[in-house]
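S1.2 Input.
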Amino acid sequence: MLLYDEGLGLASRERLLTLRDTEDGFVIADADFRLRGGGEALGTRQSGAPVFRLGLPEAEAQDGLITMANRDAALLLEKDPTLASPRGQAARVLLRLFGREAAMETLRAG
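S1.3 Output.
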């Protein structure tokens, strides 16, 4: 049984309609993703940092962020293959933060 107040917003109404119409968890999760978005990296909203947009299809289509980041990473590795520069050190920190320490082993191997 779903109970609600008459003053529902559009997003709340959509959530309830989805729950009414299906018990398929994948459909519910997809509807929730469409309504709320993909979440945030490292809980950034709580600290006041901007919303994490990288990797969302609409962000890539709009800004080309993934392509831009890929080119920037390739340029960094070309100029600093061991990530020893200050910028390279920053990249190392990000690799650790996102649990990608294995990438450092690949870099060391050449």
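S1.4 Remarks. The helical segments are 10-21, 25-36, 44-47, 57-63, 65-79, 86-97, 101-109.
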